[in-house]
Amino acid sequence: MTATARETVLRRVRDALTLSSHPPEVEIPRAYRTGRTLPDEERLALFVDRLLDYKGRVHRCTADDTAAVLAEVLHGHRARRVGVPAGLDPAWLAAFDGEVVTDSPDIPAPRLDALDGVVTASAVSCAETGTVFLDGAAADQGRRALTLVPDLHVCVVDLSSVEAGVPEALARLRPTSPLTLISGPSATSDIELERVEGVHGPRTLEVVIRTDV
Asked: Can you give the residue ranges of the LUD domain (predicted)?
């Protein structure tokens, strides 16, 4: 007996449902390139070049100068009320003479829009793509809303956390954490290809890179 079109469709649906409930074991190759390294100055130069290409702003300092540079950056934006994650090193804002607001889950996301900016640390960065990775489970980086709602994000990056390539950067992250990947300030293009900034996140990204020298 020839099966009708309806029977054929139903049989295929049943087969698909059975397959989705008991998927076959498939070995997925993970032979990604890893272990790429670059000397510090080359890695720094590449990272800065990519950040600038994405219209980020870059400042280089030593660890001892962190507070002074952050205060200067915030002053340049006339920021008077700045949000920080609960675990951020308080010494970083010791030279800032404005109000520092410590974020918490109890603060509704819309209220974060009243902040002039936010200062956070970072988990790891990729020089090849100019991308900064934030770990939402890390106390010095905070929840996603804190870095997406305010119009200014000042992010501190240690050169020791900058990897040459994407595989090397991903290997240092916790895959179970809520991760945010930042490549320059938030931007998109309208139908006429006009660049529009600040649509999905901060309009301005300031990256303070701390080096040993």
From this structure: 116-209
Q: How far apart are the C-alpha atoms of 155 and 208, rounded to whole Å? A: 6
Phi, psi of 198 (to 5 degrees): 85, 15
Contact present, 100 and 26 (Cβ < 8 Å): no
H runs (alpha helix) in the chain: 5-21, 40-53, 66-76, 144-148, 166-170
The tokens of 51 are what?
Answer: 């950040």
> For residues 71 and 98, what is the distance between their CA atoms, to the nearest angstrom?
9
- How far is residue 84's CA from residue 204's CA, in Å, rounded to a whole number? 16
d(CA 198, CA 92): 26
CA nearest neighbour of 102 among 116, 88, 91: 88
pLDDT digits (tens, 9 = 90+) for 93-131: 999 999 999 999 999 999 999 999 999 999 999 999 999
Q: What is the DSSP letter of 161?
A: G
Sign of the C-alpha dihedral computed for residues 177, 183, 187 and 191 taken in this order = negative
What domains are defined for the chain?
36-211 (3.40.50.10420)
* Adjacent-strand bridge partners of 207: 58, 155
User: For all residues of the chain together, what is the average pLDDT?
Assistant: 91
Q: How far apart are CA 190 and CA 192, in angstroms?
A: 5
In the block, which residue shows the tokens 């901060």? 202
